[in-house]
Amino acid sequence: MDILILAVVIALVAVGVISGLVVSSRKKKQLPPPAPPSTPTITAPPAEPQVGEDAVETAEEPRRTIEEVGLPEAEAPAPAPVVEPEAPAAPEIEVPEPTAGRLIRLRARLARSQNSLGKGLLTLLSREHLDEDTWEEIEETLLVADVGVVPTQELVDRLRERVKVLGTRTPADLRALLKEELLTLVGTDLDRVVKTESGEDTPGVIMVVGVNGTGKTTTTGKLARVLVADGRSVVLGAADTFRAAAADQLQTWGERVGARTVRGPEGGDPASIAYDAVKEGIAEGADVVLIDTAGRLHTKTGLMDELGKVKRVVEKHGPLDEILLVLDATTGQNGLTQARVFAEVVDITGIVLTKLDGTAKGGIVIAVQRELGVPVKLIGLGEGPDDLAPFVPEAFVDALIGD
Ligand code: GDP
Q1: Mean pLDDT in the chain?
Q2: What is the C-alpha to C-alpha distance for residues 230 and 95, in angstroms, rounded to an integer?
Q3: Which atom belonging to ligand 1 lies closest to the Cα atom of 245?
Q4: Which of 176, 191, 293, 349 has the fewest CB atoms nearer than 10 Å to its CB?
Q5: How far apart are CA 88 and CA 65, in angstroms?
């Protein structure tokens, strides 16, 4: 009998312990997920930093880890299926994919949309008789792909000369020849590195300009990811105060990779936001400050006044390291006109061509470089967060022509 009572007591205690563990397990599950030991426990910058405030003071409370609340992971029972309450948790910091080889990864997108240029040229060059009509068709193909009048003429002249010298033309010969000539036009010796070092003890400062709708804010966000992927710390300046959603959009990009965004009131003074962003970057000891600007092409004077002021005010902290012009590759001639206007207003140091995934007009790379005398440094190949690639001429031309 005593043995029976003892057994019942043991059974009750066991049930108690198990349900206790389940509760503990629920408690544990309700905690924010633990940070891996090697990563910092602050998962995101404050939602809306006060400009000029000390970065350390504004940082969130570090999250408590499992260890800190006294429940070593090793003792945790197998997780029971628990329905998590929807908590407005701080966003997890993402680790963007490395930038090396991005263009190779994204090559298919480029090739998909560019095939008409490369394939078209190769087909034409493979004709048995390269008569005047064929050369005109070749010229037409290049113009349709937005290569531009002068570069097209140069390329056709070079091809005519070299095809003549070549004599017999195998497809492999033609491909090699076309690759070589396109590469010459795109340029292999331009400095395409996005400059992020000020050379001083202050952050590198990059201003991003372009007409609204070209993908400027998206590109600024993607560029922050590119820089973070390459190990740099970034502060964002939301100086596009014209478009209502731009600051929110930029802040979301920043939060995803742990970059603080300095912003002001809607319709506020872009120059003072840009100034404060650099000040914040200096205070934080950030590597790079990225400033998004508004690109209303209402009048050239208005644009000139606004961008000129942003630039002047930012340069009170020190010279700008890059002014990147964002152009939508699908806009052809219109894009070139925009490029001209911006180049008159500020000294563009690099071009970002967006939406190259949606166009067969990849020749714009050649045309815009010619127009501005400034290299294409980055290209956008999709709406995904890591769809911005450093521009590599060889990979680009390979994608145009196919292997
Ligand atoms: P902004 O007014 O110039 O700041 O324009 P946004 O950054 O808001 O971008 C406008 C639209 O272009 C958005 O829908 C973006 O997702 C899209 N976009 C930007 N870059 C690319 C790109 O490289 N490829 C594609 N397909 N869409 C892009």
Answers
A1: 79
A2: 10
A3: 8
A4: 191
A5: 18
Pairing of strands 376-380, 388-390: antiparallel
With the most atoms of ligand 1 within 8 angstroms of its CB, the residue from 207, 209, 218 to mutate is 218
Indicate the pTM of the whole model: 0.77
Distance, in Å, from the CA atom of 97 to the CA atom of 49, rounded to the nearest integer, reads 27
Closest ligand 1 atom, CA of 354? 23
| 1: exposed, middle or buried (Cβ count in 10 Å: 0-12, 13-18, 19+) | exposed
pLDDT of residue 265: 83
CA distance 263 to 363: 37
DSSP 46: -
183, with CB counted inside 10 A (0-12, 13-18, 19+), is middle
If you measure from the C-alpha of residue 248 to the centroid of ligand 1, how many angstroms do you get, rounded to a whole number?
15
Residue 83 per-residue DSSP state: P
**Residue 362, SS3?**
coil
User: Greatest CA separation found in the chain?
Assistant: 111
What's the pLDDT tens digit per position in 87-141?
Answer: 555 567 888 887 777 877 787 787 766 566 888 898 999 888 889 999 999 999 9
Measured by CA distance, the residue closest to atom 20 of ligand 1 is 215
User: From atom 18 of ligand 1, which residue's Cα is the shortest distance away?
Assistant: 215
Minimal-distance CA residue to ligand 1 atom 16: 383
Which ligand 1 atom minimizes the distance to the CA of 380? 23
Which residue's CA lies nearest to atom 12 of ligand 1?
A: 215
Ligand 1 neighbours (beta carbon < 6 A)? 210, 212-218, 243, 246, 354-355, 357-358, 380-383, 387
For residue 249, report the distance from its CA to the centre of ligand 1, in Å: 11
Which of 19-55 are b and which e, b meaning 16 or more Cβ less than 10 Å from the residue's Cβ? eebeeebeebeeeeebbeeeeebbbbbbeebebeeeb
Closest CA to ligand 1's atom 26? 382
Q: What share of the chain is helix, strand, coil (3-state, %, to 5)?
A: 50, 10, 40
Taking the centre of ligand 1 as the mean of its atom positions, its distance from the CA of residue 165, in whole angstroms, is: 45
Tell me the backbone φ, ψ of residue 329, rounded to 5 degrees.
-65, -20
Higher pLDDT, 79 or 146: 146
**How many Cα atoms within 13 Å fall on the side-chain side of residue 166?**
20
The better pLDDT of the pair 290, 242 is held by 290
| Strands 204-209, 322-328: pairing kind | parallel
Helix H or strand E encompassing 390 = strand 388-390
